[in-house]
Model the fold of this input.
Amino acid sequence: MLFNTEAFILFGLSALTFVSPIHHNSERGIIRERKAVKGAKCSTKIFTKDQVGQAYAEAKAHVAAKTSVRGYPKRFGNNLSLDPKTKKCVGTPVYAGLMNDLIEYPIYADASGTVMLWSAAAGKIGGDMKYRVVLKANGNFVGVMEHTAGSSFKMCTLIEEEDETTGATSLIPDNTAETICTATTSTT
Done:
């Protein structure tokens, strides 16, 4: 015989383990789907999926090119810091379970409420600059947040597109439930 049947079968089985179609997320071996970009309802502002998507795409492009505009995109510390005395994590995370490698990028609304891409002129012409798109360093969409009093942030609620017949929006709960803290987090 020209080949060993036993060796052939073992080689074939071992080759199958390397071409498995299952995608594993590198985060602690958890298999997760990417969160889709959605609209967002913040305390006084609603952003459509397209508006959030524009800011998200712009942020991803800057991250990939390693460029920035007026300091953005930048690392988001998720409202956490390490207390040097107790060595414990302090602060309330905006996104529980996502403590590292978060990036923020502005969704800029001018004085008339028109959402614009972040630029060197943004903020010099007035308008509301407290909203941010949040993504992971790997480019995955996380959500939208807003600056509140002081240096705090608050997560905005992700929404489906508005129903054109009723004008109603459907809310989407955020499903990030893990709670961890690491020494690499810092307050932004």
User: Anything to note?
Assistant: Residues 15-33, 163-188 have pLDDT under 50 and may be disordered. The longest helix spans residues 49-65.
